Every structure is written in C-alpha cells, then in structure tokens.
Amino acid sequence: MRFVSIGNANIDVTVFLDRIPEQDEAVDALAAMMTSGGSASNFALAASRLGVDVSIIVSVGDDSLGQIYMRSMKEGGVDVDHVKIVEGRRTGLVVIINVLGESRRMIESPGANLELTPKDILEREDLIKGSREVHMASVEIPIARAVSELRRDASWDPGARILAKNSYEAWKLLPGIGKIFLNEKESRLLSKESDPEIAAKKIAKEGPDEVIIKLGPRGSLAWADGELCFVEAVPIKVVDTTGAGDVFAATYLVSRNMGFSPEKSIRLANAAAALTISRPGTAFGLPVWDEIAAMEFISYGKS
Predict the structure, then answer these.
(1) DSSP 33-54
(2) What's the CA angle centered on 56, arms 176 and 129, to 5 degrees?
(3) Which residues contact 88 (CB under 8 A, 6 or more apart)?
(4) Of 200, 198, 228, 196, the residue nearest 215 (C-alpha)
(5) How would you write 259-303 as a 3-class SS string?
(6) d(CA 209, CA 180)
(7) Residue-wise over 162-175: b if at least 16 C-beta within 10 A, else e?
(8) pLDDT > 80? residue 282
(9) Are 163 and 192 in contact (CB under 8 A)?
(10) Are 199 and 193 in contact, with CB atoms under 8 Å apart?
(11) What are φ and ψ of residue 242, in 5° steps?
C-alpha cells in the first residue's frame, strides 16, 4: 500500500518558553529542537510510522537545511526520490514558539516551497495515479487543481491560510476531492456555516465522499457513507500541538484503507493526535500502531 503526500517541506525550529521576552530582552529556552516539518512532511512521516510506503512531493533548496530535511525524511522511511531540489533557493523554515499555558506561535519563511508548480505535479503523474492514497496538505490552489485533475479521489487538508484567501476557489474544487480534512474554523471559512454538522453535510453535497472536521478538545466528526458520526476527544495534557492534525489525517486514512469504519477510524485518529500533542516536537512524538490501539481502547473501550 503506497501513499503520496504533497505539500510543504520545512525545517522546524521549536522553542519552549515560560514567557515571551520583552523588547531588547533575552530569556532562556526551557527546551529547543530542530526537526523536519511542514504538513505534508508530518503526514508522510506519520503514515510511514504506521507501516505504509510513502512517497513525498515537495520542493527544497540545495542548502544545508535541505540536506537535513532529506536525511530526516529518509531516516523516517519516506521515499524522497520525487522531491524537487531547487538550485540557489533556501529550504522553508518555520520558528515555532511554545509558551507554557498558551497556544503556539509560528513564524514562517516559505523559501523553496514557492517553487512547487502544477508542472511538477504533471511530471509525477504515474506516481500519483498509481498510488493507493494521495494526500495534499496546505497546498496552493493551482497545485490542488492539478492533483484533482489526475485523481478525483484525492485527500485534501487545505489549511486556514489557503481558505482565508481562496475559499471560493477551494469550493469549486470540491467535486474533484475524495476526502477533506478541516478544523472548525476552516469548515466555517469553506462552507459559510457555523454549525459543523451542517457544514459537513453541505460540503459533502459538493462532491467529497468523506468530510472530516476536527473540533479540538470536543472531538471530531465525519460525514461518510451518507451518515454523520461524532467521537469525543481523548483528554490529555497538551505539550505541543504542532503536527497533530497531520498525524490525525494519516491515522484516519491508513485506518480507512485497512477497512475500518469511519467511526473506528476517527477513534484511532483521535488517539493518535492525543499521543502526539502530549509530546514535544512532531518528529519525536509520532506514535506507532500499538500505542494508538492501546490509547483508543483505554479511551473508548471495545468497539
């Protein structure tokens, strides 16, 4: 079973602080780490961790950060043969600031991510058409359109930034999407509906077979197989939320491809996301199946 992940490639520099420094002040970090990042990269590593063969289509620079990224992905079991390496460009960089008791802050510099084009997608047509699952994460609309023209069952996690500036264009792409992952804010941006259940049904009418909406600490819901199901979240102490949505999507898609029902798949995805946010750093906190299955059973009981 092969998955393809399409989107951004970054190096994440994550720092944990007890407070933000004032102007012209320095504070000591409680902890700091540097890992590969980007939604598509997080998804690929998570799916690989779950035993899936994964190829990634991203764009990196020919710099030292790109070398670190490629090495990290290879070590994570991800196929990097289809990565675009751009001469003279810097690899994407994200600084993630985690302050105790507060939501994370992110500063992004896209770098070589801007060099991924629809032409790059078409050049990888055989890979995209021949894979079991194709997942797009935070890609620009032209990339999503190119993928949907090759695969009308692709999975898509558009992200809030894309939907905030291109919700109309995203809406027009829904007939060519198989599964779509959104959080509550994104579902409102896309559907113009404040109720997540109404939003899921409205989005599904436009084409996607499965609409999955993450509701944060309340849980997750899915409109799939003509039915709506809701699963409460797994309560857990939050350490770092970076990448949790990508791990959720990877676990859900792997579970569905293993034949699990939408409800069971959400339970497993919720469990995987809970494990992820309880640990610092996405790449260091990716769960394996045994952990996910144990957490799902402890949290929800026997199916």
Answers:
(1) EEEEE-HHHHHHHHHHHTT-EE
(2) 40
(3) 61, 62
(4) 196
(5) CCCHHHHHHHHHHHHHHHHCCCCCCCCCCCHHHHHHHHHHHHCCC
(6) 9
(7) bbeebbeebbebbe
(8) no
(9) no
(10) yes
(11) -60, 125
Measuring CA to CA, which residue among 243, 46, 77, 54 is closest to residue 133? 54
Other residues' Cβ atoms within 10 Å of the Cβ of residue 259: 8
- Nearest Cα to 169, choosing from 150, 198, 148, 196? 148
CA-to-CA separations, 149 to 2, 143, 204, in angstroms, rounded: 20, 10, 19
Q: What is the pLDDT of residues 179-224, one digit of tens each?
A: 999 999 999 999 999 999 999 999 999 999 999 999 999 999 999 9
CA 243 from chain centre, in angstroms, equals 6
**Cα 218 to Cα 195, 233, 241, distances in angstroms:** 14, 6, 15
The closest alpha carbon to 96, from 182, 14, 192, 10, belongs to 14
User: Is the dihedral angle over the CA atoms 170, 175, 177, 180 positive or is it negative?
Assistant: positive
Beta strand 210-214 with 219-224 is antiparallel
Whether 303 shows a pLDDT value over 70: the answer reads no
Residue 184 burial by CB count (10 A; 0-12/13-18/19+): exposed, middle or buried? middle
Alpha-carbon distance of 204 to 195, in angstroms, equals: 14
Which CATH code of 3.80.30.20, 3.30.390.30, 3.40.1190.20, 3.40.470.10 fits the domain covering 209-303? 3.40.1190.20
In whole angstroms, give the CA distance from residue 174 to residue 202. Answer: 11
Query: Domain limits of the chain?
Result: 209-303
Residue 187: strand, helix, or coil: helix
